[in-house]
């Protein structure tokens, strides 16, 4: 039986990179994003080129009613959820000093980046608990956070806080579900070439030239997809709550 993997924020960037890799791994992939499906014909063609079995669901993960309908739709169509990747996320519309950050910006990032992970994980976990295990696994949850979960960036403090919250949610859900054959992991991307980072390309090009990372290049969505692939392979069943830093070695402390 083909397993089903759901990826939020999957219409572009990291999310689409994850969807492509899991499709190559043999999963049926359900892509979810807030924009209508007609905007993504090019992405769908790429999935068709690799003969992927895929679906697309338009949803706004910041809205309770959308989250509930989303999870229900997946279960109705496919009967079970084997992998769920919480990837949907946004950056501040304006990078502002911590002392100038607005409540509006803070609330927006928490709603999309953190609150959605909390309550989608809750809804999906309840569904997974009702599933019969396959190969000793009821399901896998993967949260895509950021190096910003642990690295200060005072011009986008709301983003750092929202991703730090995702890291704690990873631990909480890993702890709660460890005895239920549901495994929970976290990927912390570093400096990845996506639409989100395009506006600051010059800044990071200069930092790479100065040696900010031992692996001196931009990361790619494919790098993140490969890491998620490992976590979803079913080969790490004596681990849960783990974090993989996909950041070019940024976290290494150097003199």
Q: Give the mean pLDDT.
A: 96
Query: pLDDT under 50 segments (min length 5)?
Result: none
Rounded Rg = 18 Å
Structural class: alpha/beta
Cα shape: globular
Largest sheet: 7 strands, parallel
> Helical residue percent?
40-55%
Order of helices and strands: EHEHEHEHEHEHHHE
Give the number of DSSP strands.
7
Number of separate helices: 8
Could you walk me through the main structural features you see in this protein, from its secondary elements to its overall organization?
With 255 residues, the protein is α/β, with parallel strands linked by helices. It has helices spanning 13-24, 41-49, 64-78, 103-129, 157-177, 195-198, 201-209, 221-231; strands spanning 4-8, 28-33, 54-58, 83-86, 139-144, 182-189, 243-246. The chain has a seven-stranded parallel β-sheet, with helices on both faces. Helix 1 (13-24) crosses helix 8 (221-231).
Quick tags:
globular, 8 helices, 255 residues, alpha/beta, single chain, 7-stranded parallel sheet
Question: Secondary structure elements and their pairing?
Answer:
Elements (H helix, E strand, L loop, with lengths): L3 E5 L4 H12 L3 E6 L7 H9 L4 E5 L5 H15 L4 E4 L16 H27 L9 E6 L12 H21 L4 E8 L5 H4 L2 H9 L11 H11 L11 E4 L9
Helix pairs in contact: 1-8, 3-4, 4-5
């Amino acid at each position: 039986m083909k397993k089903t993997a759901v990826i939020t924020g999957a219409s572009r960037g990291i999310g689409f990179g994850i969807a492509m890799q899991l499709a190559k791994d043999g999963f049926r992939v359900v892509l979810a994003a807030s924009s209508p499906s007609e905007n993504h014909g090019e992405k769908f063609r790429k999935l068709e080129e690799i003969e992927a079995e895929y679906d697309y669901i338009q949803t706004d993960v910041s809205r309770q009613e959308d989250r509930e309908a989303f999870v229900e739709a997946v279960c109705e169509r496919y009967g079970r959820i084997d992998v769920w990747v919480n990837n949907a996320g946004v950056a501040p519309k304006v990078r502002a000093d911590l002392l100038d950050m607005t409540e509006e910006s803070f609330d927006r990032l928490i709603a999309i980046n953190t609150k959605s992970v909390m309550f989608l994980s809750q809804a999906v976990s309840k569904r997974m608990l009702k599933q019969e295990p396959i190969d000793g696994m009821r399901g896998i949850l993967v949260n895509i956070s950021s190096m910003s979960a642990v690295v200060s960036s005072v011009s986008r403090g709301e983003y750092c806080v929202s991703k730090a919250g995702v890291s704690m949610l990873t631990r909480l859900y890993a702890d709660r579900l460890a005895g239920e054959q549901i495994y929970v992991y976290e990927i912390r991307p570093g400096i990845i070439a996506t639409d989100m980072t395009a506006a600051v390309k010059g800044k990071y090009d200069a930092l790479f030239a100065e040696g900010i990372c031992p692996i001196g290049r931009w990361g790619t969505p494919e790098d993140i997809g490969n890491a998620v692939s490992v976590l979803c392979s079913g080969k790490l069943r004596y681990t849960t709550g783990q974090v993989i830093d996909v950041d070019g070695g940024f976290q290494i402390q150097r003199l």
